[in-house]
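Re: your question about tRNA threonylcarbamoyl adenosine modification protein YeaZ

S., sorry for the slow reply, the queue was backed up all week. Below is exactly what I fed in.
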Amino acid sequence: MISLLLDTSNQALSVAVNRDSKMVAEINTNYKKTHSETLVDNIQKVLEIADIKKSQLDRIIVAKGPGSYTGVRIGITVAKMLAKQLNIPVYSVSSLFVIAVSNGIKGNTAPLIDARRAHVYGAVYNIKEDDYTEVIAPQYIDFSSLSADIKEAVYLLNSSEKITVDIDEYTHVTPRISQTERYERALKLEDADQLVPDYLRISEAERNWQDNQ
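Result:
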């Protein structure tokens, strides 16, 4: 089983090729640059590094959010395009789960993505070697409310991105989507025609439109 994995949810970019759930090649970047400018090139590069042709791919795995509206949409669009072009299945995974397993930390982990205005996209997973338990499902929530519900967990954040919530201790994580495939239960088989981002909240433009109705 050869998989191409993509995560463009936020500032960081993660592209990987796995064989039988083990990483063969990956490219991870963590700087501000539009993913639309770099994703396709990095897919080609990682395939070249792995010495694998697109025609050899068995499936696509893509982080479907939450995160940046534009970032998530870019990854989803490219994943759908490749899946239909190559006639292979596409699977989705939560962008928070990607963060949860990227550093190899076991036990209760609380991956967070800053959502501004004292809110986060957050979840809690109990991570084992090849399995996990979802303790708190991914959600958009006031950070103080989420932290009040967390008894014991390692907070995970990408410190290269803007952090606006009041948090004292956390572990820096750069997302590595190559690590998610060991947890098959976290992957959801999607219909490429129906696959859409999971933003966990409506956009500000949608909210303003609803308020004006």
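Residues 112 and 122 are 5 Å apart (CA to CA). Helices lie at 35-50, 69-86, 95-101, 143-149, 204-211.

Happy to talk it through on Thursday.
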